[in-house]
Design a protein that fits this description.
One of its GO terms (molecular function) is aminopeptidase activity. By secondary structure, the chain is of the alpha+beta class. It has a single domain, classed as L-amino peptidase D-ALA esterase/amidase, CATH 3.60.70. It has six helices and 14 strands. The strands form five sheets. Strands 1-2-5-6 form a four-stranded mixed beta sheet, with helices on one face. Strand 7 and strand 8 form a beta hairpin.
Length: 299
């Protein structure tokens, strides 16, 4: 296991859980969730998170997603694609995904300035795994697929200029994926210090079980939400900004949505990023499109 610097004060997993919306009596969407109501309901998927709180200024992290788990992700590619509705944020590897149509590396989501370090960490991890399996560097590079790293900006609540994440944090997140049995939501992993509609945002996840003719299919979603302003916030198409206390100043930003599902044992990954308050028509279209797949109802 990779050891993080002790000064990072890696927080323990949450010991108490706030109720999710279904526990409060509201069941959004047409289809039932999986057992965990999480992207981890998709067979083989593993997720690991690293959360960093250092002093009063450093609050950041990263989330690593392994589509086929730590043993098979590198060896067995899965189908993949991206869709960018109105994005300007960074998402590495998109040209390779468009050309090849598959991925065989972990996926990472972090903050804006850490993309390069996280990308490098994923590459070094891939090479290390190849050498452990007896491959030489030429063989492993022929198999190599460009890592996919996405980002949203956490600079309002984090001293992003410190750029504290590095190779060790990438290795630690992948290590955590081997034992992490749930996705920690909100202020954890890449979602640390992210804001959503003027409130605390961050990491979210959900799943739906889609009945088929001969079997059921599971669709899982993981989001890193860092976007929006209060008047646009709706739950079940009901605006809820009025009853909530006014606060926060984030009016625009980004959201990354990672979708995985089982279909004849292949996975499809979609990343969408970002979303801005200045384009309400696109916001409406995106929400409707995603809601038709029951993907934005991750509560």
């Amino acid at each position: 296991m990779t050891q993080l610097p002790t000064s990072w004060a890696q927080p323990p997993p949450p010991t108490t859980t706030r109720p999710r919306i279904r526990e409060l009596g509201y069941s959004p969407g047409k289809f039932a969730p999986g057992p965990k109501n999480s992207i981890l309901d998709v067979e083989g998927v593993q997720v690991g998170q690293v959360t960093v709180h250092q002093g009063t200024d450093i609050h950041t992290g990263l989330t690593a997603i392994l589509p086929r788990g730590i043993k098979e992700t590198r060896l067995t590619p899965c189908y993949a694609a991206t869709h960018d509705l109105n994005g300007m944020g960074e998402l590495t590897g998109t040209h390779a995904l468009s050309e090849y149509g598959y991925i065989n590396t972990p996926i990472a989501i972090t903050n804006t300035v850490s993309v390069g370090k996280v990308y490098d960490g994923l590459f070094l991890w891939e090479m290390e795994q190849a050498r452990k399996s007896g491959e030489n560097d030429i063989e492993s590079l022929r198999r190599f697929c460009i890592p996919v790293v996405g980002e949203t900006y956490d600079g309002l609540l984090n001293d992003i200029s410190a750029s504290v994440l590095d190779k060790d944090s990438v290795y630690a997140a992948i290590d955590a994926a081997q034992s992490q049995t749930e996705v920690f939501e909100g202020n954890y992993g890449g979602g640390t210090a992210m804001r959503c509609h003027g409130y605390k945002g961050g990491t979210g996840t959900s799943s739906r079980v889609i009945p088929g003719a001969d079997r059921d299919y599971t669709l899982g979603v993981l989001v890193q939400a860092n976007h929006g302003q209060k008047p646009d916030l709706r739950i079940g198409n009901v605006p809820i900004d009025t009853p909530l206390p006014i606060g926060g100043k984030a009016a625009e930003g980004s959201i990354i949505i990672l979708i995985m599902y089982t279909f004849y044992f292949f996975w499809v990954i979609v990343a969408i990023e970002p979303l801005t308050h200045s384009e309400p028509t696109l916001l409406y279209c995106r929400t409707n499109c995603a809601a038709s797949l029951n993907t934005l109802e991750w509560a």
